[in-house]
Amino acid sequence: MAIDPATLRGNWSYPTTVRFGAGRIAELPDACRELGLRRPLLVTDPGLAKLAMVRDAAAALTAGGIEVEVFHDVKANPVLANVEAGVAVYRKGRHDGVIAFGGGSALDAGKAIAFMAGQTRPIWDFEDVGDWWKRANADGIAKVIAIPTTAGTGSEVGRAAVITDESAHVKKVIFHPRMLPAIVLADPALTLGLPRRITAATGMDAFAHCLEAYCAVGFHPIADGIALNGLKLLHDWLPAAVAEGANLAARAHVMAAASMGAAAFQKGLGAIHALSHPVGAMLDAHHGETNGVFLPYVLAFNRPAIEERIAGLARFLGLARPDFDGFLAYTLRLREDIGIPHTPAALGMTKDHVARFAEMAAVDPTAPGNPVPLDMASLRGLYERSLAGEVAAHA
Q1: Going by CATH, does the domain composed of 5-190 fall within 3.40.50.1970?
Q2: Which residues does 392 contact at the CB level (< 8 Å), separation at least 6?
Q3: Which tens digits make up the pLDDT trace of 172-182?
């Protein structure tokens, strides 16, 4: 069925103000005025900073009487130095808010800069542990406008930022409820230029978010419903978004699913992310691609706890074989079709990494959400099976 992309437009209030639809980037000056921002800092990455979309956004702000400065010292996996440099620019320029413009790295860095601009304690004091977020000066957190240019992380609707601690080579989640952007301009037209590989990797990130949220321990039927529908959108539209880069309807549905995944995973994540974070932190691998690599191995490992739930998902997606094995086969085909590697060896991982990565995964904050309890032995086994390419059932 042909869908007119112009109909894929809406104003949503969950979990924050979201203005969704092609062309909504034109509303950036109005969004700044609505929040009272007269001198925002636009945070992006080096690649995007060179593109017309960022230059045009900055020019539109200037034309609208809003002073803007662009900060783009952000790595693909943002590190503390990026945040500290951004905070220094923010304070020196006496900025009054942040426009986080880009993929997950720029969004996370922008949110972390807005958060840390008003803090006196080091950033690691606000890691997502217990109620550490209460240590923050909430009144010092700057307002954020988020503009995603990829469809994967969903960071535009999240209350946290993932920052790499380079001294420990560990990805840490920095959390505060007020890190949630005040306004999101979700414009799928901004994703039209994404390369096939990035479209696939970010799409698998969204897929992993929805799947892990759906399978995570705990009672949260609201998150489950959002995750289910996010998975349906990805089932229906991700292959087209990868194969037909100019398909705006496909791009729009995948972008919506990415936001849905991030809204859903407030329920929890699990072993996919626990395994993925050490690989990203130590080998600087793309987070979405890493999630895609580990997804079927974790799915098979978790089978004893989620088989019935996955069978329900398979029926909902309308798979030809509506059971666990049918869904597992579907994920393997999807990965192959869109170009996700089958083993983490393609990301630079070797057997020599297994022991250290298992130690890191065991203490990752996403590990407790896994439906089958994780320990060092099970995590080592998951890494070893993934390196061997063996999607084996839980032993």
Answers
A1: yes
A2: 297, 300, 385
A3: 999 999 999 99
